[in-house]
Amino acid sequence: MPHNTQHKKRTKLYHLHQRSPFTTSGRSIANERHPTRNEDNIIIDELGGLFAVFDGVGGSAAAEIASQTASHSTRRAWKRILTKERNRRKIYTFLEDCNQHDLCKVLEDLILEADEQVRTNGATRAHTDDLATTVALAAFCRQPDIHDYTMVYAHVGDSRIYLLRGEERIQRLTHDDGLLSKLIENQIVNEYHAFRIDQAMRADQLSDVEYNYFRLRGGITQALGGPIPPTIHTNKISVYPGDRILLCTDGIHDNLTDEEIEHVIRTNPRSSAARVLVESARERSHEDRSQTIRSKPDDMSAIVMTCRF
């Protein structure tokens, strides 16, 4: 390719990324027990305003195929929506007017399509119908009258979305489809009790019953690719300059407490926060269980977006 052509393409790409209202960092690594097979998958589409993490369930090649299939399906479907939206505009960019779309419904349809792909094409590739994946997904659109942005988000399983705003404590926007949520739903524990169990560092902080809940907290109650279509949780929130948003799989939040996650995001550059989160979770996974009950080898994925518009 001629030098001038390469230079023009690099210049165009630079200016397109300057249009993005986010500074983004992302990192995904495989479990050290199967270093060549990463069962997580991530989407970072700054220009299209779409970000997602997927965590294949089951610890096998089928888990990797499940997360790959869901990720590819979601990318294709979002690009299809944006292509239809831009109406012959040459610039690929995120949705410009939140009011023209029911984005909660759009994301729900996106995830249902991914679920169908996992159960059909994914099952064919994996030679088994026993495959599934979690998803946490965030999409952005502009509020045209006030020039603010809205984040619409959806999730199934125990991959999470967090918001860190100003000097406020980090806020978990999603609720895991797992044991602790079921215990809250059945009024066996309250939200404060469940949070204390989930954030424990040592066994002596918990009773025997609580410790058993802690050990089982990673079991999820639904995922994409299961025998029935999932119940998809959706919501939306306005985002403002300086807001930091984290999407992560359970390899991050099982190893690190919410307080530790907040500290990493606050004290590291925007461009490296995801990498440091993954490195911190990997270090924790090496710790002996006599030091902490949180230590857990796993695939680990994080995306951190900082709003800078």
From TrEMBL:
Entry's transmembrane regions: none
Organism per entry: Dictyobacter arantiisoli
CDD domains cross-referenced by the UniProt entry: PP2Cc
Designated name of the protein: Serine/threonine phosphatase
UniProt feature coiled coil, ranges: none
Domain PPM-type phosphatase, chain residue ranges per copy: 24-307
Domain of life: Bacteria
GO molecular function, one term: protein serine/threonine phosphatase activity
